[in-house]
Design goal:
This protein is α/β, with parallel strands linked by helices and 792 residues long. Helix content is 44%, strand content 15%. Strands 11, 12, 13, 14, 15, 16, 17 and 18 form an eight-stranded mixed sheet that branches. Strand 20 and strand 21 form a beta hairpin. Helix 6 packs across helix 13. It is globular. It starts with a helix and ends with a strand. The relative contact order is 0.11. The N terminus is likely disordered. The structure holds a DNA duplex (15 and 10 nucleotides).
DNA sequence: AACAACGGGCTTTTT
DNA sequence: GCCCGTTGTT
C-alpha cells in the first residue's frame, strides 16, 4: 500500500543541465567487487560502450546491475546521468534500496530508475504541451480503455459480438506496440486485408475514433505512454537531444521482455553516447503475448556491432538437480542463445512428480505436504510457493490451506487499485484533476445515486458531441441544459458545481485535505459507511477506502522539501501501480500463491508446481504454433528455476473447467525433464497425507549424475541429519490434525502412544482429550500439539 | 429508476 | 462455477 509513497519521484526537470566534470577516480572504494565472480565482475566494471549481459536464472543478475551502477557512481559518473529501466516497480525499488546501501541516499536518489511506463509517463507530463496533452493527463487503465471501446462500437452501430472490446483492444495495443499509428493502420494493405478476412473491416475506424476520443479526454492508455514517447522523441529533436545528454548511461533490465516501442526509445536515447547495457535471459522471455520481442536481443548485435557480451552462467540459487532439469527442458527449444547454466550447489533431491484424481485433491495434497514439511523441517511459511498457470487454479489450494490453518497470500488477481470502490473514488480524483476525463465522469456521474440516469446521460453525450464539446462541457452548456426538464437541470448543475469546486482547489489544497473533502462531499464515504452493516464485503470496502485515504495522508506528509503534495501528484503513479509492487508486513511470512508469470524474479526454498496437464500447461491457446509452445516451455523453465531446494510437480486426472468435470492428460513438459532428475510418487487417495509414502529424502541417485561438475552432494542425507541434530526422533512426523477424530491412535513425542477420547472446541481453541497408557489422560490444544496419527 | 432473475461467455499470462 | 451485463418486472 505505501510503496507509491516511498517511491522516489525523480525530478526530470526540463531545460539543459550543465555537464559535471568527472571527479578523479579513487581506488579502493569498491570492496564489493570481491563479492563477484569473474564474469560478474567483468560485466560490472566494463561500463563504457554497448554491452549485453545474458544472465541465466539465479545467476546474480540484480547484483550485477546494482553493483554496476554503484561502481559507475564510484568511478565518478554523475548519478543524474544514469537511467535504469526495469520491468516492475518492485524491481526498481529493490535495486534502488541496494544501491542506496552502497553509495548512499543522495546519490542513489539521483539515478532515474523505474519501469518504462513510469519513467516515460513523467517525461511525457513534462513535455505534454508539445503533444497537445494537458500536463495532468489521465492514464486509462485497461478497464477504461475497454469501456471506451465498447461505447465507440455502440456508437458506430457495430456488432458487439464481432467487435468485442478485448479483441479490439488487443488489436489496437499490438499496433501501438509496433508504433503503427491509426492512419498507418488504415493505409496498411496487409493489416486491412487481415481485418477483412476476420470480418472486422471497421477496425481501422474504431482505432482512429479511439485515438481521437482519448486525445479529447486528455487521456493516454498504457501503450500510449510508449507510443507518444516515441512521437515526442521523433518530432522534437531538441527534446530528444536533451534526454540523450541527460541519460548518458542507460541500463535495461529484462531486455528480452521489451517490445518494439520500448526498443526504439532506448535505441534513440542511446544514439549519442552508446553507453547502453541490456540485461536479460532469452530463456525467460514470457511476455510475447503483450508485444515483447525476443528479436530485440538478437538484433542488439546488429545495432551495436562492437558490443561486449557477458554471460552469467553460474547459478547460485538452486540445487544441481533443479539446474540440470531446467537445462534439459529448455534445450527442447529451437530459438535460443547458446549458454550453459551450472551450479556449485549441492546435488539436492529429485523432482517429485505426483498425480491426484481431482483438482481438489491436488489442493489437499499440496497443503498437507506443506504442513508436514514445515513441521518436520522447521521451515517458515514463506519458504513455500505454489505456482500455477492460471489464476483460477488458486481456488483449490486456497481452500485446502485454509482447512489446515496455513497462512497464505494470493498474489495477482484483482489489485487494490482495481477494486470497484477504489476505482470509484479515484474517478472523482481523476475528474477533479482533469475535467475532460470521460471515463471517470461516466463512472461517477450517477454514483452515488443522484438521479442522473442512463437516458439523461446519453442525451448529454449526443448533444455534447454534436457541439464538439466534451461530456463535462456539455453538462455545463446552457443551450444543452435547456433542452432538459428543470428537475434534471438542477441535479446536473448541482453535480457539475461540486466537481468544479473540487477542480478549483485541486492544485492548492494538500492531497489529504482534498481527498477527504471529495470523499465527504461526493457522498461516497457516507454511501459506503451506510452499507457497512450489510456484510463483511461492505466492511472491507469501507476499510479499503480508509486504507487509500491514509495512504494519501502519508503521501501528503512525506514533504521532503517542505512543498505541498497535491492530489494530481498522487495520481501520477497510481495507474501504473499494481499491488504486486507492495509487500505488507503481515504478508511476509505466508505461503505464496501466484501465477508463474508473477513469480518471475522471485525464489523460494520449496516450490510446488501444479496443474501440469495438457491444455492447461501448456495452455490450449499455445498449441497452434511452435513459437507459442516454446514460450510455454520457457514459462515452465521460469517456474522450475524459482526453486532453491525442492520442486514438487503435480497434476490431476480430472478437474472442473467451466463447471464441468474434464479429464486431463499429464503435461508433455513432465516427460521432457531428463528422467534422472525426477521420481514419480504414488499417493494414497483422499487428500494425500504423506505419512505412509514418506517424504524422507531419497538415497543417492544411481549413475548419470556423476558427470556433474561438483563433488557428491552433502545434503543427500541432510534431512536425516537435520532431524538428528534437532534431537527429535527421526521417525516422528507431526500430522495435520484438522481431521483428527475420536478413536484415532496417535503418537506424541514425549507421552508416547495414546488414543483420542474426546474432541472439544473449534478453531484455535480446538482441544483433544487423549489417553496415554504411560501418562494418563491429557488435554492438548491441537493448535500446539505435535501428534502423529498412527492409525485411524 | 431500482432491483431481481436470467443467460452468456469465459480463463493464459500483466506493465 | 462465477462474474458480468442484459432483460424483465414493479
Amino acid at each position: 500500500m505505501d510503496s507509491f509513497i516511498c517511491l522516489d519521484r525523480n525530478k526530470l526537470t526540463p531545460g539543459y543541465s550543465n555537464f559535471p566534470i568527472l571527479p578523479l577516480i579513487f581506488a579502493g572504494m569498491s570492496a564489493y567487487l570481491d563479492e563477484l565472480n569473474e564474469s560478474q565482475r567483468l560485466a560490472v566494471i566494463n561500463y563504457e560502450g554497448p554491452s549485453m549481459v545474458i544472465a541465466g536464472a539465479g545467476s546474480g543478475k540484480t547484483r550485477v546491475l546494482t553493483y554496476r551502477i554503484a561502481y559507475m557512481i564510484d568511478q565518478g559518473i554523475d548519478p543524474f546521468n544514469i537511467l535504469a529501466l526495469t520491468f516492475t516497480n518492485k524491481a526498481a525499488s529493490e535495486m534502488k534500496e541496494r544501491i542506496t546501501k552502497i553509495v548512499g541516499d543522495s546519490d542513489a536518489r539521483s539515478v532515474v530508475m523505474g519501469t518504462f511506463h513510469s519513467v516515460f509517463s513523467r517525461i511525457l507530463r513534462i513535455n505534454s504541451e508539445r503533444l497537445g496533452f494537458p500536463q495532468n493527463f489521465t492514464i486509462y487503465d485497461t478497464q477504461d480503455s475497454k469501456s471506451l471501446i465498447k461505447d465507440i462500437v455502440k456508437e458506430l452501430n457495430l456488432d458487439d459480438k464481432l467487435y468485442k472490446p478485448s479483441v479490439v483492444y488487443g488489436r489496437i495495443s499490438t499496433a501501438k506496440n509496433q508504433l503503427v499509428s491509426s492512419d498507418e493502420y488504415a493505409n496498411n494493405a496487409e493489416i486491412i486485408s487481415e481485418d477483412y478476412a476476420n470480418k472486422r473491416p471497421m477496425m481501422a475506424t474504431i482505432y482512429k475514433t479511439y485515438v481521437t476520443r482519448c486525445f479529447k479526454a486528455g487521456a493516454m492508455d498504457f501503450d500510449d505512454l510508449l507510443f507518444y514517447t516515441n512521437v515526442l522523441l521523433r518530432d522534437f529533436p531538441d527534446v530528444l537531444q536533451h534526454y540523450q545528454y541527460k541519460f548518458r548511461y542507460i541500463l535495461v533490465d529484462e531486455y528480452q521482455d521489451t517490445n518494439f516501442a520500448q526498443y526504439l526509445i532506448v535505441k534513440k536515447l542511446a544514439a549519442v553516447f552508446e553507453n547502453i547495457c541490456v540485461v536479460g535471459d532469452d530463456a525467460q522471455s514470457i511476455y510475447s503475448f503483450r508485444g515483447a520481442n525476443i528479436q530485440n536481443i538478437l538484433n542488439f548485435r546488429k545495432d551495436y556491432p562492437d558490443f561486449q557480451l557477458f554471460k552469467l552462467e553460474q547459478n547460485y540459487r538452486s540445487t544441481q538437480v533443479i539446474v540440470e532439469a531446467a537445462n534439459s527442458i529448455i534445450k527442447n527449444n529451437r530459438d535460443q542463445i547458446e549458454k550453459k547454466v551450472w551450479t556449485e550447489n549441492d546435488l539436492g533431491t529429485k523432482i517429485k512428480i505426483v498425480r491426484t484424481l481431482t483438482d481438489n485433491e491436488e489442493g489437499n495434497l499440496v497443503a498437507n505436504r506443506i504442513f508436514d514439511m514445515k513441521r518436520g523441517e522447521g521451515l517458515e511459511y514463506r519458504d513455500f510457493a505454489i505456482l500455477y498457470r492460471t489464476n483460477r487454479q488458486s481456488r483449490a489450494f486456497e481452500e485446502a490451506l485454509r482447512k489446515l490453518n496455513l497462512p497464505y497470500k494470493i498474489y495477482g488477481g484483482l489489485s487494490f487499485y482495481q477494486r470497484k470502490e477504489i476505482k470509484d473514488i479515484l474517478a472523482y480524483f481523476r475528474l477533479a484533476t482533469n475535467l475532460k476525463d470521460e471515463e471517470a465522469l461516466k463512472r461517477i456521474i450517477n454514483y452515488p445515486k443522484r438521479g442522473i440516469g442512463q437516458t439523461t446521460q446519453e442525451g448529454f453525450i449526443i448533444k455534447s458531441a454534436e457541439k464538439g464539446l466534451t461530456f463535462f462541457e456539455g453538462l455545463t452548456d446552457p443551450d444543452i441544459l435547456n433542452a432538459f426538464a428543470s428537475g434534471v437541470r438542477s441535479k446536473i448543475t448541482e453535480f457539475t458545481t461540486m466537481i468544479q469546486s473540487f477542480h478549483a482547489q485541486i492544485d492548492k489544497l494538500p492531497a489529504y485535505d482534498m481527498a477527504m473533502e471529495i470523499a465527504k462531499s461526493s457522498g461516497l464515504l457516507k454511501e459506503l459507511y451506510n452499507e457497512k452493516d450489510k456484510g463483511p464485503e461492505e466492511v472491507e470496502r469501507y476499510q479499503n477506502i480508509e486504507e487509500l485515504i491514509s495512504g494519501i495522508k502519508a503521501f501528503t506528509q512525506q514533504n521532503q522539501e517542505n512543498e505541498t503534495k497535491t492530489l494530481p501528484e498522487f495520481l501520477i503513479d497510481v495507474a501504473l501501480l499494481t499491488d504486486a509492487d507492495e509487500q505488507k508486513d503481515e504478508d511476509r511470512n505466508k505461503v505464496s500463491l501466484m501465477t508463474i508469470h508473477s513469480s518471475k524474479g522471485l525464489e523460494f526454498k520449496h516450490v510446488f508446481l501444479v496443474g501440469l496437464e495438457e491444455n492447461l500447461f501448456p495452455s490450449q491457446m499455445s498449441l497452434h504454433s511452435r513459437a507459442e509452445l516454446e514460450e510455454e516451455r520457457r514459462l515452465f523453465y521460469v517456474a522450475l528455476t524459482r526453486a532453491e531446494k525442492t520442486c514438487t510437480i503435480s497434476y490431476a486426472n480430472s478437474r472442473f473447467v467451466f463447471g464441468s468435470l474434464q479429464t486431463s492428460e499429464p503435461s508433455r513438459f513432465i516427460t521432457e525433464i531428463d528422467r534422472q532428475y525426477t521420481e514419480h510418487e504414488t499417493t494414497q487417495h483422499g487428500g494425500g497425507r504423506s505419512l505412509k509414502s514418506g517424504r524422507i529424502a531419497e538415497p543417492a541417485f544411481s549413475g548419470g549424475l556423476n558427470r556433474l561438475s561438483t563433488p557428491p552432494a552433502k545434503n543427500l542425507r541432510s534431512l536425516d541429519e537435520l532431524k538428528q541434530s534437532n534431537g527429535t526422533n527421526p521417525d516422528f512426523q507431526a500430522s495435520s490434525l484438522s481431521d483428527l477424530k475420536v478413536g484415532y491412535n496417535v503418537l506424541h513425542e514425549t507421552f508416547g502412544r495414546g488414543k483420542v477420547i474426546q474432541i472439544t472446541g473449534n478453531g484455535d481453541d480446538k482441544r483433544a482429550v487423549i489417553f496415554f497408557p504411560k501418562e494418563g489422560s491429557k488435554t492438548l490444544l491441537l493448535r500446539f500439539a505435535k501428534l502423529q496419527i498412527v492409525e485411524e
